[in-house]
Design a protein that fits this description.
With 147 residues, the chain is α+β, with helices and mostly antiparallel strands. The protein is 27% helix and 11% strand.
């Protein structure tokens, strides 16, 4: 990695507060002030979208160990605990760990701009997306995310 010494020096700075989220100890978590234990891919339901818009759905196979949380739960809890608000003074993230509520919110957002990057949190919305969890992934077309 270019400038590795400078990066390590900056990460070790007393003026920097580091929050890391990971599934195992790393050089970064060793320097972090707070480490958020994350669930790995087999420990959470989710999906990923490739650059060609192919959605890959994966269902939770096992429960996460200890205090590990899904990415969505970490994201929403962080927002709630930091008391982030939108322009109207309402909570920035209006859901907690509810994938359906997140999907509905992001589906609404897609009216204005593409939500394919956010589609990864719609894993429990197979019925809305027409995705058969037992079948192969299918390509979603842009108009399918709009009402």
């Amino acid at each position: 990695m270019p400038e590795l010494a400078r990066i390590r020096r900056n990460l070790a700075s007393k003026d920097l507060f580091i929050v890391a989220q990971d599934i195992f100890p790393t050089e970064t978590t060793a320097l972090a002030d707070v480490v958020l234990p994350a669930a790995q891919w087999a420990e959470k339901t989710g999906c990923g979208t490739n650059v060609d818009r192919t959605v890959h759905l994966s269902h939770q196979a096992i429960k996460p160990p200890g205090e590990a949380w899904s990415d969505m739960k970490i994201f929403s809890e962080f927002s709630r605990r930091m008391d982030f608000k939108n322009k109207d003074g309402e909570p920035l993230i209006p859901w907690t760990d509810d994938a359906e509520a997140a999907f509905e919110h992001w589906k609404h957002t897609s009216k204005v701009r593409s939500a394919f990057a956010f589609c990864c949190c719609s894993a429990t919305s197979e019925a809305d997306e027409g995705t058969d969890p037992a079948g192969p992934p299918r390509r979603l077309q842009r108009h399918e995310l709009r009402e």
